[in-house]
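ASSEMBLY PREDICTION REQUEST
Request ID: AP-0331
Submitted by: J.K., bench scientist
Number of chains: two
Total residues: 529
Priority: normal
Notes: Please return the full assembly, not individual chains.
Input sequences:
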Amino acid sequence: MLIKFAKPSDVKPSEITPLSAYLDRRRFMKTAAVTGAGAALLPLLPNGASAAAKFDDLAKSPYSTDEELTSFMSVTSYNNFYEFGPGKSDPIKNSKDFKPQPWSIAVDGHCANPGTYAYEDIIRPHKLEERIYRLRCVEAWSMVIPWVGIPLADVLKRFEPASTAKYVAFETVLRPEEMPAQKTRLLDWPYVEGLRMDEAMHPLTLLAIGLYGQEMPNQNGAPIRLVVPWKYGFKSIKSIVRISFVENEPPTTWNKSAPQEYGFYSNVNPNKDHPRWSQRRERRIGEFLRRETLMFNGYAEEVAHLYEGMDLNTQY
Amino acid sequence: MTADQGIRWVAKPTVFALCLTPVAWHVWLLFTGGLGANPIEATNRFCGEWALRFLLVALAVTPVRELFGWSALARFRRMMGLFAFFYVFLHLSSYVVLDQFFHWPSIWEDIVKRNYITVGMVSFVLLLPLAVTSTKGWVKRLGGRAWKRLHRLVFPAAVLAVVHFYMMVRVDTREPLIYGAILALLLAVRSIGPLRRRLSRRRRKPAERPAVV
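STATUS: Completed
Returned structure:
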């Protein structure tokens, strides 16, 4: 039986275009035309803005926030995706040649069903959901993004992890020809991330394949990425090609790059400063005044129990 | 029109206007949405980078003048220095007003705890008396020698400004390293003159002695 969460009368997520996004778009076009850079800027239009496939019939989620969405324009033009360059506008500029299809993910380690799975085979058995989450970057800015995806737990269960699997490790694709910054030594490529098993199986943890009701734009981590809303954004690894069930805490890229600045857990925590800036307040993209950062990015009710008894000041 | 009038009534206003074009361009982008999703961050970065650029331009005036014998350049040195301070001031204001919106506890915490902000703030404090004493009146009041000594503070201020930028970016260090290289070059060129003078003085000494005898 197909359980349909959405009523026919419901507004499809793809139909929601907040006024700010609409205005942003016009303003963007105006700038492009007026500055005479139109020709140069047009190819920068997020690929989602023109031809991306749309998802219909997305299930709503009780985990979604009703906060005002960050505009599509901002979500797809202000990104940290170092594979395409360290600047915020590098990903949208440099990801046009990236080919997110065909795609497959290697599953290995402590599980009953290892192997290489085609993207379609991973997604097909599941009901797609829309999850509107807050995203808090470690750099003290934040967004509200309507993701399209499936709970990671539902996917992981199909691989039947063994009891010896204590952590899940993830790896981003390594394609220096399509991801120009991978030719530099900006970071130790490929990008790797990891979660503790209980974090990976938490119902908030999402395997996302789209946003704003459409396919994931390249600059946001096409075709498939993690979204862990109570952790700093860099934990939500993009363009995943490997999932490994492992016994020990796996290495993570930013921790290797600057261990005193980025820990394995990297839970959003206003009381634990980054060595170079305070995490107490954040700038929500599109707002002028900073707002207070919430413990676990406002998801404390759902996830605080995972860290009971841990000293979050030292295990950050 | 004499050369002096040309500098005074044509060259100086032109350069002055040119020095303001970055601000005009930035304000234009601000009102046309060209600054992207985080215009406050973009503004902060813009002011900081131009502050550093003008600091380097101001420091380049004297070496370039001596190297090429363009004595007229001396008349632009103060303007360049003041524009450097103007952009430094915009940079600091954009941090206090736009980024923090006068949230003094956060600002104080930043100055005390964040090394790169401490370093940037020290650089600002070093530049402040230089801007204040930039007038002819102050040169007279202090006397040329003391004024010159005071204004040597621009060297540590510039070094700290580059360090401030370097510490902030950490991962992608290309830009601050370029500024650092230019600064190092300018400082090196400056030290050639005095060094040569000192060397020639030493060489002259043995020759001078017999003359005294």
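REVIEWER COMMENTS: Chain A has one domain: 54-307.
SIGN-OFF: pending second reviewer
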